[in-house]
Amino acid sequence: MYKRLSIVMFPFLLLALIGASVWGYLEHQEKNTILIKAENQYQRAFHDLSFHMDKLHTELGNTLAVNSVSEPSYRKGLVNVWRLTSQAQSDITQLPLTMLPFNKTGDFLANMANYSYRMSVRDMAKQPLTETEMKTLSALYDHSAEITKEIRGVQDKVMTNNLRWMDVELALASEKENHDNAIIDGFSSVDKKVGAYEELNWGPGSMSSLSKNKISMLSDNDMTAEQIKQKAAQFLGQSDTSNMQVVENGGNAPENQSYSVVIPGGKGGSDQVQMDYTKKGGQLIYFMKPRDVKTSKFDLRQARDIANEFLDQHEYKDMSAVSYDQYQNIANIIFAKREKDVIVYPQQISVKVALDTLEVLGLQAGDYIYGQVQRNIGQPKITAAEARKQLSPNMKVTGETLAIIKNELDEEVLCHEFIGKMNNTMYRVYVNSDLGIEEKIETIRPDQAEAAAGAAK
């Protein structure tokens, strides 16, 4: 009986064994295909990075070689530097370096891209490169040569020893602190050298200067955790602070120092209140009271009125709604500061309002806080009628006002703001009130048109 059963079952078992083997082989092949594809992508990005850094060094040298009065040549060179730097940044993002300390090199390239872009878009006939800017370009040329040399060294090791980027990913994902890998060591060496460079003068629009400027916008003294609790309680209209949890953030970097306040809620903590305050001056940066909003009983205009009243109650005076938005029964209204009938767009506050009960669920005031500067708002040199000549004759203007915006050089400029419609699309156009040139154009979504028209009256 057993012999007969084994004769019957043997073909089935053999087929099952063959099927499992084929399945395992195909799975292995598919896995190998995916790994090979990932490895090829990493290798391509790495060799592209080496190529772009080499070209970047060459382009900086070419830019320095031309006469400083040759505006077209300088502009072309700086545009190429910006393009190559941006490509190098893109290459880095495609490599498995997220767990590797490489932030100093990333910041360096970001500042270089920002610097070259700002130099290329400005009018060099009126603002030629200064001696300080030439020194910065020379330093960038020297630094790029060193970075290129280091990356080439890593590239030589990769090609000579057939090193794999997949091994880098596995090494970084492991829990071992010491990674014995030539690629990791090479990139760590690059970042260490970049971190040792002397601080360059990147100008007013750089990442480093912006962070320093942020902290200078704040006044008063450093707050304690207890003082922050009192401020949070006052904002929420309650007296009990016993359930508030306060955490200090930012370490030793003054521009990042803040306090986070958490007030536990019911229902498993899903509706807990979260708030962030600056350490210096104790100003509210962020407030969020999340909850599900299942229905929409009120419209955006009613939400705007409630948000405006909320800002008035919390000492955010003279604010104008400039944008409406709605998502999952929650209205998001953006307000901008208004000074002397001029809308100051760099000073914005975002307010979230639930459309079921008109409860304010959130506030984002970072731009408002760090945009508090002493502004000397003068009179425009050209009239609104003269500025209108920059618009298309086919645009039907529905509103106009004066506004302060930030241009491409990160400078605040006074503009004539026009709201108009053309080709069934609403636009917001800013014309420089001193130079009469077009600074910026924005497309306005249909649901934002009412807010834009209301602001530009």
Automatic annotation (TrEMBL):
<dbReference type="InterPro" id="IPR048402">
    <property type="entry name" value="YpeB_N"/>
</dbReference>
<dbReference type="Pfam" id="PF14620">
    <property type="entry name" value="YPEB_PepSY1-2"/>
</dbReference>
<feature type="domain" description="Sporulation protein YpeB PepSY1 and PepSY2">
    <location>
        <begin position="185"/>
        <end position="377"/>
    </location>
</feature>
<feature type="domain" description="Sporulation protein YpeB N-terminal">
    <location>
        <begin position="30"/>
        <end position="167"/>
    </location>
</feature>
<protein>
    <submittedName>
        <fullName>Germination protein YpeB</fullName>
    </submittedName>
</protein>
<dbReference type="InterPro" id="IPR014239">
    <property type="entry name" value="YpeB_PepSY1-2"/>
</dbReference>
<dbReference type="Pfam" id="PF20769">
    <property type="entry name" value="YPEB_N"/>
</dbReference>
